[in-house]
């Protein structure tokens, strides 16, 4: 991504978000010196870029335009290159322990080498351990005057309130269409390209509020355009928007009818046209989401690119279920043998489910309800009828998540095996210890393991082991999950008795 690096904002004025620009101007203009900033928000919205800009503003040797950095002096250049020794970028995920923070506290006392302010940019700060947070808090309570902290996180709810209250909090939000278009125009001008406004709007819609994603599309278009002009037609052709939206509508119709055959045909078409399944699923989920909001009576967010299906026959509980199924399937894409398989399985599973015949809440509010309706044209061949009969006797197929989002035992088994496999690639002995444990509970935030042996518990509590486990678990679940280990109660009691 050359454009992204090349056009990373270098001044406050170049940041995408108007709100962030204004807050930073005000904070950095004021005579009151802030010793800690907290930047929160999803990935790809420019938190790190903003942190570096703040570092430049605080250290620039020759500001010319108000508070903006000059981007030419030694300080500005070395900060932009990442070679300034007084600007320390620390990854909270790999430096999360008390030792690292203690070390940091020692070094903080030393004056900066060449800059006015020593700046600590701690990324993924929510990954720090409680002890590390406590140590950090002590520093934040009485920071040396030459130090400024910029804490960044995608998960602000995991940052203790005591830390939050000592920081100037800036919340990075998904960029609006106008903000993205503004950024694209800046790039287009510098690249001496021409771009239709409609084309830029379309790219903005495709990038779902992420400057990084948008710039990537813009760059692709810049590479393929022959006359240095980015037109709406060019973007549409390459992202076959109209085509995709039409297929999303078709897919929703087939889901409404529980018509697996026509749903699978749409998937086959996608595959033959080379449309990326993940992109399609994203659009489908967004369309269902809009439909859900509409049915509940919430207006959609302006600028959302997804289709507004306001006349969907699906009921609220059905839409909810479909969004759950599709979200799970989308997360499985990475591991699928063929990219279309997870989506196909959702379609088949959905068509085999009996129609939800009541949706009391929806009914009360006067939403259209098709009670006890039978799928009009489900699977039509004989084989399918056999399957349906089977389903009639047994229970409907197991669904991946329950309403509370607590996963079932069979899923925990799958998670457990995947985790052990993943850990095995890093460390065999830790994998061995894991085999002696079991999942006591998993609720997508915390994984509670239970073991019979104290030495297992001790081993799993070691910092190094913990890191291996957490990294593996993150790879498997693509979430940050806390791991807790408990000793099986009977064994814990016996052990306590022994100790006396
Ligand atoms: Zn400068």
Q: What oligomerization state is this entry in?
A: single chain
- Which ranges are low-confidence, i.e. pLDDT below 50, for 5 or more consecutive residues? 302-308, 357-409, 493-500
Kindly give the count of domains.
Answer: 4
Please tell me how large the radius of gyration is: 27 Å
Query: Helical stretch count?
Result: 23
Number of strands: 10
Tell me the CATH superfamily of the largest domain: P-loop containing nucleotide triphosphate hydrolases
Instruction: State the share of residues found in helices, binned by percent.
Output: 40-55%
Spatial order of the strands forming the largest sheet: 2-3-4-1-5
End-to-end distance, in Å?
A: 63 Å
What structural category do the secondary elements indicate? alpha/beta
Core attributes:
Rossmann fold, about 10% strand, five-stranded parallel beta sheet, three-stranded mixed beta sheet, about 500 residues, Helicase, Ruva Protein, domain 3, disordered C terminus, 4 domains, binds zinc ion, alpha/beta, Zinc Finger, Delta Prime, domain 3, flat
């Amino acid at each position: 991504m050359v454009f992204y690096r090349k056009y990373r904002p270098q001044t406050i004025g170049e940041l995408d978000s108007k709100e962030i620009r204004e807050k930073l101007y005000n904070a950095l203009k004021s005579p009151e010196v802030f010793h800690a900033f907290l930047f929160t928000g999803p990935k790809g919205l420019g938190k790190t870029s903003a942190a570096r800009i703040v570092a430049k503003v605080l250290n620039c040797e020759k500001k010319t335009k108000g508070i903006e950095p000059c981007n030419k002096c030694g300080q500005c250049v070395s900060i932009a290159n990442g070679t300034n020794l007084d600007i320390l970028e620390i990854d909270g995920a790999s430096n999360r322990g008390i030792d690292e923070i203690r070390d940091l506290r020692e070094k903080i006392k030393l004056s900066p080498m060449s800059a006015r302010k020593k700046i600590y940019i701690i990324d993924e700060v929510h990954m720090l351990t409680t002890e590390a947070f406590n140590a950090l808090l002590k520093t934040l309570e009485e920071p040396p005057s030459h130090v400024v902290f910029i804490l960044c996180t995608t998960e602000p709810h995991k940052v203790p309130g005591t830390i939050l209250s000592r920081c100037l909090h800036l919340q990075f939000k998904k960029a609006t269409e106008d903000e993205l278009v503004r950024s694209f125009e800046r790039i287009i001008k510098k690249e001496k390209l021409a771009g239709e406004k409609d084309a830029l709007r379309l790219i903005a819609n495709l990038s779902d509020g992420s400057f990084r994603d948008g710039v990537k599309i813009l760059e692709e278009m810049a590479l393929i355009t022959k006359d240095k002009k980015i037109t709406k037609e060019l973007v549409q052709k390459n992202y076959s928007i109209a085509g995709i939206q039409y297929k999303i509508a078709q897919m929703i119709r087939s889901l409404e009818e529980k018509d697996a055959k026509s749903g699978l045909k749409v998937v086959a078409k996608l595959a033959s046209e080379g449309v990326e399944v993940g992109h399609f699923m994203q659009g489908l989920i967004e369309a269902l989401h809009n439909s859900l909001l509409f049915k509940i009576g919430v207006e959609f967010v302006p600028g959302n690119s997804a289709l507004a299906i306001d006349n969907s026959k699906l009921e609220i509980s059905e839409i909810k279920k479909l969004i759950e199924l599709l979200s799970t399937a989308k997360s499985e894409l990475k591991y699928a043998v063929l990219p279309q398989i997870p989506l196909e399985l959702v379609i088949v599973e959905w068509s085999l489910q009996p129609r939800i015949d009541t949706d009391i809440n929806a009914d009360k509010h006067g939403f259209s309800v098709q009670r006890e309706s039978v799928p009009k044209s489900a699977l039509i061949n004989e084989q399918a009828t056999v399957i349906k009969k089977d389903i009639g006797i047994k229970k409907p197929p197991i669904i991946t998540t329950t309403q509370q989002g607590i996963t079932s035992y069979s899923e925990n088994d799958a998670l457990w095996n995947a985790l052990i496999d993943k850990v095995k690639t890093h460390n065999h002995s830790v994998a061995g210890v894991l085999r002696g444990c079991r999942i006591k509970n998993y609720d997508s935030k915390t994984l509670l393991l239970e073991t019979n042996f104290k030495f297992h518990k001790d081993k799993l509590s070691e910092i190094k082991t913990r890191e291996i486990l957490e990294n593996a678990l993150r790879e498997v679940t693509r979430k940050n999950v806390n791991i807790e280990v408990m000793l099986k109660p009977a064994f814990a009691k016996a052990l306590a008795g022994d100790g006396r």
